[in-house]
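Might you be able to check the backbone structure tokens below? Thank you kindly.
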Amino acid sequence: MARFVVLATSPSRPKFDIFSVTIKYFLVTIDGYDPLDVRGNVTIQWDVTQIDSGTYNADVTIYNYQQYRHIEWPPGWRLSWEWQEREVIWNMQGAEAKEQGVCNKSLGTPPPHCCLRRPVIIDLQPGAKLNKQATNCCRGGVLTSMTQDPTKYSAHFQMIVGLASSEDLNPKMPNNFKFGTPGYTCGDPELVVPSTRFPEDGGRRWRQALSTHKVICTYSQFKAAPAPSCCVSLSAFYSPMISFCPNCSCGCQEQPGLLCVKKGQTPLILPKSQDPDYVPPPQVNCTSHMCPIHVHWHIKESYKEYWRVKITIINLNVRKNYTTWNLAVEHPNLHDLVQVFSFNYVPLTQDRPTNDTGLFWGVQYYNDVLLQSGLSGNVQTEMLLRKVPGTFTFDAGWAFPKRIYFNGENCVMPPPSDFPRLPKESQHVRQ
């Protein structure tokens, strides 16, 4: 596999209207609609599998039905809801409640696993005791995307639920679900008919759940963070001009709350938090765009029947490595992609009339981890695309991407007016 040299850029920046970026970012992300993954969501499935005297068993499964957006640790997935009665969780497998709550002594000994009206459920860490495990558990809250790793896109846990009183148990579906990872909004539970079937005896027998409800949670980048987290710059072999990341794409250096590390400066050592799931604010290299992630698209070569593009992803976060990162790209010529070097690639064709969107990610044990700034914090690829007669052109910015997402976050693009332009003289094509 080939290695490529990091593309250097000039420190100068063109003028830019930050208002236009803000409006575009707002319109794309406020309603949770993702044009590149229109059916993407996180689905919570709640199955009541058994009702005993005073208790019932619930199997809860979380599915990440998003093509390229995954749930990372920290903090990992968080799931909470509100009980309709005085329910308590007597026992759990495959997950645990973050807090037990103050349980009444009249409930007996040992006390319930959790007696909060709104419990917060978290995943177990890898290596948890076998008697606490369940199928598809114990990954520290990590859920991979459907495309990148379809074997680890779900999580599952089991509960024994009862009432904190002597009243007769009538299982009621809880409401007000929240998927604790920032950016997600959950709808109301909906009864599924017919209910879920579970295989037994190696698939020879099927057991029916007594009832099944589903809760759909959708993601909005606008709700997840007050500003974008990545930006895109552009260049081409035929122009000396570079379209840099717009000024203040992700914030401004003088903005309160942003930790900016100047060249040669030692990053700040933040105080440790008592919360093991605490996520410290990013510390990024001081730039005019202040984005933790900088993606550069360079039109490298033009041949008679093909053209070559180089993509460089630069991590400017001095405190974070990006594990199992991915890059979603929308470009009309991806339909005629011939070869990708040193990255994995899969076309994304969900509900799209043409194959103009693809997902790139690193090769395992080679470049699937994007190291923090200062530790070779970049990964690169080159791709060869076929020129389609009557469609391909270098004119009017056609050869540059329409959208780029890093880890599911829509990156800020330069305005089309700042794209590198073709020179007036004719282009010489290498034979």
